[in-house]
User: Fold this.
Amino acid sequence: MSNAHRVAMLGTGLIGDFYTMTLHGQRGRDRVQVVYSRSQERGAAFRERWGVPESTTSIEEAVGHPEVDTVVVGLPNHMHLEAVEAAAGTGKAVLVTKPLARSAAEARRILEVVEEAGVFGGYLEDLVYTPKTLRAVASTRSGAIGDVLWVRSRETHPGPHSAWFWDAGQAGGGAIVDLGCHCIEIVRSFVGKGNRPVEVMCWADTLVHPIEAEDNAIALIRFESGAVGQFEVSWTFRGGMDLRDEVAGTEGTIWLDHFLRTGFEMFTSGEGGYVAEKAEAEAGWQFPVGDEVVELGYVDMFTDMFGAMEEGREPAETLYDGYVVNAVMDACYRSAQTRAWAPVELEWRGGTAPRVARTERREDGLVVIKEEHLPDGRRKLILKDPASGAFLDRVVG
Amino acid sequence: MSNAHRVAMLGTGLIGDFYTMTLHGQRGRDRVQVVYSRSQERGAAFRERWGVPESTTSIEEAVGHPEVDTVVVGLPNHMHLEAVEAAAGTGKAVLVTKPLARSAAEARRILEVVEEAGVFGGYLEDLVYTPKTLRAVASTRSGAIGDVLWVRSRETHPGPHSAWFWDAGQAGGGAIVDLGCHCIEIVRSFVGKGNRPVEVMCWADTLVHPIEAEDNAIALIRFESGAVGQFEVSWTFRGGMDLRDEVAGTEGTIWLDHFLRTGFEMFTSGEGGYVAEKAEAEAGWQFPVGDEVVELGYVDMFTDMFGAMEEGREPAETLYDGYVVNAVMDACYRSAQTRAWAPVELEWRGGTAPRVARTERREDGLVVIKEEHLPDGRRKLILKDPASGAFLDRVVG
Amino acid sequence: MSNAHRVAMLGTGLIGDFYTMTLHGQRGRDRVQVVYSRSQERGAAFRERWGVPESTTSIEEAVGHPEVDTVVVGLPNHMHLEAVEAAAGTGKAVLVTKPLARSAAEARRILEVVEEAGVFGGYLEDLVYTPKTLRAVASTRSGAIGDVLWVRSRETHPGPHSAWFWDAGQAGGGAIVDLGCHCIEIVRSFVGKGNRPVEVMCWADTLVHPIEAEDNAIALIRFESGAVGQFEVSWTFRGGMDLRDEVAGTEGTIWLDHFLRTGFEMFTSGEGGYVAEKAEAEAGWQFPVGDEVVELGYVDMFTDMFGAMEEGREPAETLYDGYVVNAVMDACYRSAQTRAWAPVELEWRGGTAPRVARTERREDGLVVIKEEHLPDGRRKLILKDPASGAFLDRVVG
Amino acid sequence: MSNAHRVAMLGTGLIGDFYTMTLHGQRGRDRVQVVYSRSQERGAAFRERWGVPESTTSIEEAVGHPEVDTVVVGLPNHMHLEAVEAAAGTGKAVLVTKPLARSAAEARRILEVVEEAGVFGGYLEDLVYTPKTLRAVASTRSGAIGDVLWVRSRETHPGPHSAWFWDAGQAGGGAIVDLGCHCIEIVRSFVGKGNRPVEVMCWADTLVHPIEAEDNAIALIRFESGAVGQFEVSWTFRGGMDLRDEVAGTEGTIWLDHFLRTGFEMFTSGEGGYVAEKAEAEAGWQFPVGDEVVELGYVDMFTDMFGAMEEGREPAETLYDGYVVNAVMDACYRSAQTRAWAPVELEWRGGTAPRVARTERREDGLVVIKEEHLPDGRRKLILKDPASGAFLDRVVG
Assistant:
């Protein structure tokens, strides 16, 4: 309880708002002490909006603030490295928003800066921390669905709110960099962080928006265990924001819906003077979520980050994880260009993972392919004769 | 931020666990300082479980603890009055779990004790504080669904975990007292706290369990505005816990699902060594929730309580609200016995509410009953001739 | 296969359209031969619309048509008796739409007319025949959910399409007569047709529309077994048409959604020139159903009716069932007036039903109230000492 | 109505059962006259089961039956060509189950045989005919979701019921051939049959079962318009059968669920003696469908086939479509081997499709990338300066 953190928030965009709403929310003990913005005006508005004591247009002043022990980097992607360099030098904890960088090389550099400075580093990948994901990952680890075979992560909406994110130069890419980064970590959380992403197959296209960057992409990620991750990202989705994950295992299945179908449904004729937020239409069926900063993982993310700092352990999402994500995204862009599977090039620290496998079962010397329970209590077996290779079915008592 | 509260927790049952999990959860700044239990053993186990500094078997010692500023009453229903009397005398804030008491008379006495002592009082009705409910109520107040006509609240599960709750003498009743108390406040939150509950029609029966108290009940509550609330409670539900609310208004509809269908679905064959919590079966489709203390409203509830204490305002749920709930439940039991509508007898502090009404619209002197949009762009009107009383339909351009 | 029926369709409204769409749909072998309408114009339009050979403005001519073997009464409620009298005299099968009549007395007269004529009679209550309901009822009868305790049937929409239905004089009432009649048969199908509806408690009000008839009603129906049926009907629902049923049994639960959430979800921006049918809004999320005449039960209903005629058995829905429905609705109106439970007055032909009961189980001489499985494999029992009446809990190995 | 068809059913497996259940169901006028099976015993059992007049072990006898006008090929994949050759020679209509063949070459040969014989041919791809799909495709064609960008079709279950289907030699492959064939036609129905499938990227693996064929596969299909189809097939899914489709368009979104979440939910404790069909577990939450032969498209499929024969038009699913499906699947297997995009090699008869495109919109000479409606009624524009390439945002009145 002695540990109430004081934060320097770098950036006043949507993500800075979400982070501060989380830190200052409920009965939280941590506070943003100073906010940095390139614009004095936006800094002042942010200060006002969230009751933050100070604002500045100098990164150095923000990160060097004597009462601050934690720097949160919530700036556009192309400014991450510079900000981390400034912060790491102060010896303070550095937490960086997603994606970590515009490329694996840049992410690698960020990682080195922090590791060389010996400061605490954390990767602010919120969607891995949604309460549903945390529980689903825990169930997966406890064996509820057996070996993980396939994980799909979908993240689609009608495109980002900030102008800079539409500019591939500043952002490092399009929908893959914006949304795929979440999906990759969600996939890794289910297949296991020690399961190396080996290669990637990716399709990307600019189907709708008048931009250079991809507005739609789908990728498959093959892991060492044989498991396959899949992400589907889009900046052209109609109907709100679609955040869904699915996991298939040898013994079970998990389906997660984080946004559009979470048990809150509202129809409004639009004649009551009501203005819907975030929905595409002002009338009709709407699907709000309860508490967004909880449901999107921000609350549990900061709890883990500060908890890790206090307990001297690594957070669940490290800057190394951010680097892995960038390495996978780099492979995605290469695959989209070569139109073939592309290897994920990265310095791997995660060990090795065994191949997905189910013990072969035999009855009377025949391999059991499948067993069905019939309504009369008997079992129907699909069998394979290992000698002849012939398949047969047999009903047994 | 100066306000970190120290709590005396009275009771070590399921509700004490939930409250403490909430207070000590995430980055919360408040802490339970001392726990009271009738049993030294249970007190010690609780202290251990939650990292609470002290435990005691003396209520007086707990409520009189010098570092404590807030007393939380989480005891069986028949002990609420006694505990409140002890706490109120200390001048500390008193927060009482639901239901407030076993009857309106007893609730009235609790209210008087606290009001006479002039201390802060709060009614710990968590389900009114679920994030979905808070947003839905806010949307309702902003006009999204027009005038509220009907609210249904369903709360069913296979029966309580504690033995004392099955004993009508200690609990004050059965499923109505256990579950209906939540429903009544949910209904009131949507129809408006200033909308007087006028009368009640209730059916109650003991269909399954070998007990005296009702294990199933349904009630209608008629409010001054004409709106109708409805609750359905059961201790015999199969399939988990069903918490759903529905609101119908003149301009819209709201459906809330707090537990069984919230976007988290898992199938498990049961062969992975996994043990499901809270589900009725260990294999098959399961429907966990994300973060229970968030989803069930505990987090926002304590935020409101402590916020109210700090800001010198009333919490959203006052002890008076708890008294109203008991008055409605008393009427339910009377109605179930008389088999007719029973008036809600209570000292009303809430003002008056106007009758639900929609402005009558006319076309060509005829009353418009309904307007439908046809696929060809024309409108079909159902009209009533106010002179003759005749109904007719007419398609207009 | 020799049995291709020729139908005289009385009435050209929405229900006549649905019936004929069903009969003439898919690979059906039955056909409407002649249609009767009070208006020559509507009759001609109907003939054209459905490829019906003949139309007439004479009921006698329609029912007396030499090629016709089946008369379908799809007229406004106040014309049913007259039409049945005309049809029964011809010796042909008489199928009557829902509700059978405006009152139990009128329904009783219809029943007598048909029984005295000795012709085949069927009650066209479609919603009991939805494929989901048929399977759910079959599962219930096979023991899937144990003894039925409670059945809820919801039917709500923004009000009928035909002017006459808004006129209580012609219709016999409002939303109860229009929608409650479906609900009552759905409830009876689950609790068992041999389970006598004993008494009724009903609330009805006219909350929104400028009419005399009720636009909202809720009723509880107590059956001989102790099971309770519940219906919720409304002509003021916003958001489409809500048709949902729920069944709670001692060993299970059934939830049916027939319209708004059936696995077909569509968002449309409304900018593609698309015109939605039946949805309240032309843009936003829509929830169409697949094949309405299947999903609403019309297909299975006519299959049962013609199958019964051919096999010399009673259909699942007889005119007697229609009479029971009217008797329950009469009790609803009486209860709404007297504001107390009202007995269902009817000539009962259905036998007797035993009280819902679960065998009492004991361990060590104590009554087992509830058994919970703990994560560690042990069981927690809530027990009652039959001698002292005391409740206790005990964890066993 | 004169057109009641008499069918020779070749094959007595699950698909023959489904087809006959459909033809003989409800008020259908068509009948199976003779059934062919390689085994006299299975033929006799089928005859008994469905009330079919005759059975035979001679294909020639079946297809040559004088009362038969339609031959339905419901045999294992490797027997299709032989059966079609026998049937086409008789001049009767030939309807072939899915997949048409084991390869595009074999499918091409089947197509030629039928076209040379000049007889009516139909491809029995049922899932394109589900009522939901028919309505969703119709809405798509009428502009409800704008230009189609992406279609996903998921078909997964725990593996086929018949032994031969596990043998790649007889089946022509594994999950792709069994399930992917459905998905490909679903995708084509939404992107348009005239939209050429250009190339394919496919991953396939044998993750769980001890077989040679793939038990899991994912593929992307790029169409001439730029739209992308995606299929996900698996023989290792746990939890039932998952049939879901999703369509994303420039103006809307469609989600279809055909099996696991269709509005029918049942929990059973398993203690009522009830035996669940088709569910993996006998207790717990189950998700039955209403009428399977309707919901899986069989009813509308035969209605279209016979309607096409009677009206002298092509059915919605022709043998040419079956050939296209085989050509796409061939490309999938090639891509899975080459680990790169593989061209779809086929004789294309479908014309050309324009590129997906949205009209570029400008304000003040700047390209509008995105427009958001703010709660205060103003609009936020994300804009691109076509001269400088810079992105900016602007709030306008």
